[in-house]
Structure formats: C-alpha cells, structure tokens
Design a protein that fits this description.
Layout (H helix, E strand, L loop, with lengths): L1 E6 L2 H10 L4 E3 L2 E3 L3 E5 L5 E3 L2 H4 L20 E3 L4 H11 L4 E7 L4 H13 L6 E3 L7 H9 L2 E2 L4 H29 L9 H17 L4 E8 L4 E4 L11 H11 L4 E13 L7 H12 L3 H13 L22 H7 L6 H4 L39 H16 L5 E12 L2 E12 L3 H14 L16 E2 L3 E8 L8 H9 L8 H6 L11 H10 L3 E4 L2 E4 L1 H9 L2 H4 L1 H15 L5 H21 L9 E5 L6 E7 L2 E5 L8 E3 L4 H8 L3 H11 L7 H18 L1
Parallel strand pairs: 1-4, 1-7, 7-8
Antiparallel strand pairs: 2-3, 3-4, 5-6, 8-9, 10-11, 10-16, 11-14, 12-13, 12-15, 13-14, 17-18, 19-20, 20-21, 21-22
Helix pairs in contact: 4-6, 6-20, 6-21, 9-10, 9-13, 9-15, 10-13, 23-24
Length: 692
C-alpha cells in the first residue's frame, strides 16, 4: 500500500519525489515504492460561478441580486481539469491507503488540497506535511513527523470562510455597481478599503494649501544653532516675528546655557516577515510588492536558500536556535564571509527579543535555510533580495549601534538656539547594513546634525551671522507600495475613533500573502497608476469610492473580518456565525446601491470607437503604456492606444468571442472597415477547417 502526496506545484512535487526516491515519471504524477507524488497547478477546484446555480445568473441584472446560494458549491477549473482528473483517479486508486497534504503550509495552501479532496469525494485518511523550507533535510524531517490532518481543520474552516466571503461580497457588490452605473466597476472586502485610503490621501493632497514659514539660524563660528520656541517649534508663520528675533539678538553676546550629552543605543532590527521585506525592497530596490513575492518564491522553491515566504512573524522559535550556526555557515560566502567569520566559532545566543514562541503562529521569520549559497547561480534581482535577508539575519548577532548625542542650547538676549551633533561609539549591527543606512539617510527629513567641537557650559560665544530662511509647508506624501503596505498592515492608524482603533490592533487589510496581489489588481483595473514610486488614484477610483457602500470603504469592517478569520483558524471563532454576518452585510450593501441616486461619469472618454460594440472607448494607463478600453462591461474589449486594423486583427483572430461579434455586427462598420471583417471571417473559416 502507498501514500499519495499532493503538492501545490509541479516544481515542489519533483523535489519531494526526489527526496522520497520516487523515480517513475508518469503524466501528472511521479511514483516510487512507498509514495505517489502528484500536484495541483495552484487551485484545481474553485467555488462555482453564479450561472452554475441558475443559468439566468449568467446575465448581470439588478433584479437577480443579491445572489445567496443556500450552500456554496465547488467546481473544477476548466483550464486545469486535465490535472484534476489525474489527481482524482489517484485519490481513488485501490493501493492508495492514505493521503499527505504537502501544499503550501498556510491558509490558502490548505484550501487548495482540501477542495480537491472534497470535489473528488475522497474519504481516505490524510496527514499534513508542515515545513518552513524546501531543503532536502526539511522535507525528510517533515515526513518523519507528519501531523494529523484534523489538526488543521480550523485553518481549513478559515480558508473556506475567506473564499465564501470574497464570493458573496465581491460578486454581489461588483454586479450591483456595474448594473446600476453600466460601467466596469468592481469592489471587494479588501480591495475597496485599500483603494479608499489611496483616494483619501489624494484628496488631502489636492485640498492642501501651502503656507509660507520662516526659520532663523545663528552662526557662532565653530557651530550653528537653529531657533526654537518654548514648545520646541522651529517654524515661524509670521515673517515680522522672524525679523524681530534677528533684530533682538543682533549685537548681543551669546552664552552656552546648557549642554546635554546622552549615550544612545539602537538594537538590531527584528527579522523580516513578508510585509516588512516587501516594504524594504520597494524602498531600497524599487521592487513592487508582487515582484518581491515572485523573486522570494524562487529563492524558496528553486534555490532553497530562504525559509517559507508568506509569513506574518518577525521572530524565530526556540527550536530554531540550535540550527543558527549551520545557517550562518551556509551563507559564509562572498560579501558575507567576513561578516560571519567571528560568529560561526562561538556559541550563538540571540537576544530574547528575536526568539519568542508566542509571536510565531504558522511560520517563523524569513531567514536563510542553512543550504550552501552559490551567489553565481542567482539572477541579479535574486541576489539583491537575498542580500537584504542575509544582512538582516546576520545583524541579529551583532551588538547594538551606540553613539553619543550632544545637544547645545545657546542663549542670546532671551532667545534660544539649539545645535545637535552625534559621535558614533560603536557601529555594531550597522556595519552589516551600512550601505542601506546611508541610502536611508539621504531620504531622511530629520533635523540636521553637525560635528560639534568640545564646548563648555557657561562659555561665551560671538554671534558671527544670523540668517532668515523662507520655506513652504508641504502636503502629505502620496502612497508608495512600501507605505501602502504599512497602511494595510495597520489600518487602525487611520481611524479617528480610539475604541475602534484599539480593536484593530494586530489585524489588518488582507494577509501578507494577499496584499501584493490586491495592489496589482488595483493597478490592472485602472483604479491606480504608478508614477515612479508613487501610487496615484484615477478618476474612476475617486468615483468608485463615492459609489461603493460606506461600510466597505472603511478599513474597520474588513480588518475585523480578517481578525475573525484568524480566530476561526485558531479554533476560537464560529464559521457559521461569520458567514451569516457576511450574508447580512452583503444584503445591506446591495440594497444601499440599488437605492442610491448618484451618477458615474467617466472623464477619459475618447472619440475612438470600440471595434466590437461601437461605443466610445476610454483611454487608460496600462502596464505597457496607454490603452483603449471599452466602457461596456458586457464587451470588455481593450487594445493599445495606437492600434490599427491589422493590430486589432492580430490580437483578436484567436478569440472566437470577439470574432463572432465582429463578423456578425461590424463587418460593414465604417469605423473598422470591411477589409477587417473579411479577414476575420476568413480566419474563422480556416480555424473551423483545422478543427474538422
């Protein structure tokens, strides 16, 4: 008898099969003496579409909303049905006695496997492979200590709740908005409140009115000082006051009133979780959140030099501590060799702030695996991202960064001027991350520091010069992916109500694994455009936030839902109660949209006609430049801004849906020309002949 192992991807299945000595390759699976290893292709099974419940729901009509199936059904995804049939056949094979779920060790990975098993109606016992890296050692150890499948039932319940909530809210609200305003408007429980934050920030920027202000700086020869009032404020919003200050001190002797010297110490930063790594990679490497996840996945699966990526923890557990030496030896190469040389020969005792079992849920922080790293086989982006992870890991073992901070208060005729300087005593962990710290310094808006010579309290100083500087207040910065990830992780910061803000502590919009996907979806749906690193909302986005249900715009409700999903995953919440609350909320939101009296008016309409339906197309900024998009949700045609008839033909000749519409309705349309209709008709006929 054998065990069937279900992996999430073919690449992972091949590695598991190799470690388990499965060498007999077949179509869709690899077999060995004790195990049969097969795989999904991401999801093979999903929630059924509305029309799978009732064919009338294939048409989007307001009178059919809200859609509330009594029981949510599953269906096989058509594009990957061939692999599903292979897995189903293996599940029911007579010599398969038990199953091993080896999909990604997280909420979504659990859903991938469980839905396949449920759809195939397989009742065989199963166990769970739960590992944090894809190394041979981790796989072997994982199979030696397989977990009972039932231990992850709560995680599966949370995954199902997430999927059903997205179906109920996303599909109903999207259809309601699209039907009400006859436009391609989509909304979701995470996407909409995230977009609302971007739109709100843009509103604050647009409404911001710059104000002039003045600062006063005095030169005392061997150092300078900046004027501050009794509250420590340096900005003066009355020019006359700034002039009076300079007049008051002119010709007067200065005296050093106070010198404060403070010894400061900065501990190494915590290790990376996915969100923190995405933030740093965006800020320092200009990676999008999605690119960071994609590159990180390769470092995890293909190169096997980092641990599980989709983690929300920045700590490690006590059982990892004995392996730290091996992990350091694994990265003892290239620029890291000198950094770890003194560490590998000593007993490693990381500070308690890094080792905390209570702060690790499913997976510990992202750290090296211990595999020997060969930097020469990594692509440039892989090297750069691994460099962040390796340096952050090494920094954990280094002493604090220490410096002496000196502040001098110089008094002149009742006015106080402050000077600040710093002397580094020990670089500590910053010697590992120094190149990044320099980059950060360039971008910093901190108060200026200077080199201060030794001074004594009570010393008299001569005022050499005094200068008034004029500046303007600046609006809040637009979101970058780094700052938006922070906002999604901590939405409570954007809530005025103190009680609500405190209730959101520890919860956020989406999960580390889904936040990058949400940002990319906002961009691909033309709600947000990238302007360098900045994220700028479009007119479509601003209008959608006005039209979407009020409760869906706020991060409060969605973050509370995510918190409840975490409770369900830990066995502390009710799946039934959660879904009932989602159903109630969905009914209310659809009702609000139906009764609304607002209008939607796109402001990017062009004179170009859609070749499929003839409507005036919208001009949008796509990933590869400007595009023309049909505003009719039932059409959905899109093309490059400067596409001609031949371009449209090349793009659409393989699409039966577009071809049939073009031939039936527009082969004689003056806008696209009869030649295009003839060419498409000929292409369709040729395609049909090949089928025969």
């Amino acid at each position: 008898m054998k065990s069937l192992v279900i992996a999430e991807k073919p690449s992972v299945a091949r590695e598991i099969a190799r470690v388990l000595n499965c060498n007999n390759k077949n179509k869709g699976f690899i077999e060995g003496p004790h195990y049969v290893v097969t795989w999904a292709l991401g999801h093979l099974v999903s929630l059924a579409e509305p029309e799978d419940y009732d064919q009338k729901l294939k048409l989007w009509r307001m009178e059919d909303l809200p859609m509330m199936p009594d029981k949510m059904k599953l269906k096989v995804i058509r594009q990957s049905s061939h692999q599903y049939q292979i897995v189903k056949k293996l599940l029911h094979r007579g010599d398969i006695k038990e199953l091993v779920i080896a999909t990604d060790a997280g909420r979504e990975g659990e859903l991938v496997a469980r839905w396949i098993i449920a759809q195939a109606k397989c009742n065989k016992p199963f166990k769970r492979l739960w590992i944090s890296s894809q190394t041979d050692t981790a796989i072997r150890e994982g199979f030696k200590h397989l977990k009972p499948g039932k231990d992850y039932d709560n995680l599966y319940d949370a995954a199902v709740c997430r999927a059903e909530a997205d179906w109920l809210v996303g599909l109903n609200v999207t259809r309601a908005l699209s039907c009400k305003y006859n436009a391609q408007l989509n909304a979701g429980r995470v996407q909409t409140p995230t977009l609302a934050m971007v739109v709100q920030r843009e509103k604050e920027i647009q409404e911001f009115k710059p104000q002039p202000y003045w600062t006063v700086r005095a030169d005392f020869g061997d150092y300078y000082g900046d004027w501050r009032d009794a509250k420590g404020q340096s900005r003066i919003f009355d020019q006359e006051r700034a002039v009076l200050i300079t007049a008051r001190i002119d010709g007067h002797e200065a005296i050093i009133e106070e010198i404060r010297r403070e010894r400061k110490s900065e501990a190494p930063p915590l290790l990376y979780d996915l969100t923190e790594l995405q933030r740093d990679a965006n800020r320092r490497l200009n990676f999008s959140a999605q690119k960071t996840l994609s590159v990180l996945q390769k470092l995890y699966e293909q190169h096997k030099i980092v641990t599980y990526p989709r983690t929300d923890s920045r700590h490690i557990t006590t059982d990892i501590v004995p392996t730290l030496g091996q992990r350091l030896r694994g990265i003892s190469t290239g620029p890291y060799q000198a950094m770890v040389k003194s560490l590998v020969s000593q007993k490693l005792n990381p500070a308690k702030r890094f080792v905390d079992n209570s702060k690790v849920s499913d997976h510990h922080a992202i750290i090296p695996t211990g595999e020997a790293v060969d930097l020469s086989v990594l692509l440039n982006d892989e090297k750069r991202l691994f460099d962040l992870i390796a340096r952050r890991f090494i920094a954990m073992f280094y002493p604090p960064y220490t410096y002496e901070k000196t502040t001098i208060c110089t008094l002149i005729n009742g006015e106080r001027f402050y000077s600040r300087g710093k002397v580094v005593k020990q670089q500590g962990w910053r010697s590992v991350t120094s190149k990044f710290e320099e980059e950060d310094k360039k971008q910093s808006e901190a108060l200026p520091e200077q080199t201060l010579n030794r001074q004594e309290e009570g010393s008299k100083k001569q005022l050499k010069n005094c200068k008034i500087n004029r500046a303007m207040t600046t609006p809040p910065a637009r979101y970058t992916e780094a700052s938006l990830l922070t906002a999604m992780e901590n939405p409570g910061k954007f809530i005025d109500d103190k009680k609500l803000r405190e209730s959101l502590t520890g919860s956020g919009l989406g999960t580390p694994a889904t936040r990058a996907e949400i940002i990319e979806k906002l961009i691909s749906s033309f709600y947000v455009e990238r302007n360098g690193k900045q994220l700028v909302p479009t007119s479509k986005a601003r209008q959608l936030i006005e039209l979407a249900p009020e409760e869906l715009r706020s991060p409060v409700l969605t973050a509370q839902w995510e918190e409840e999903l975490n409770h369900i995953a830990r066995g502390k919440g009710s799946r039934k109660a959660f879904i009932e609350s989602i159903r109630r909320g969905t009914r209310d939101m659809v009702g609000d949209i139906q009764q609304a009296s607002l209008e939607y008016q796109p402001d990017n309409v062009t004179k170009s006609k859609c070749p499929v339906c003839g409507k005036n197309m919208l001009l949008v900024q796509g990933k590869k430049g400007k595009m023309l998009v049909c505003p009719d949700r039932t059409c959905g045609h899109r093309q490059p801004e400067k596409a001609d008839n031949d371009d449209i033909f090349k793009k659409s000749r393989h699409s039966d849906r577009i071809n049939k519409k073009l031939i039936k309705q527009y082969s004689d349309n003056e806008q696209i020309g009869t030649s295009l209709g003839d060419k498409l008709k000929a292409a369709m006929q040729e395609k049909e002949k090949k089928k025969d």
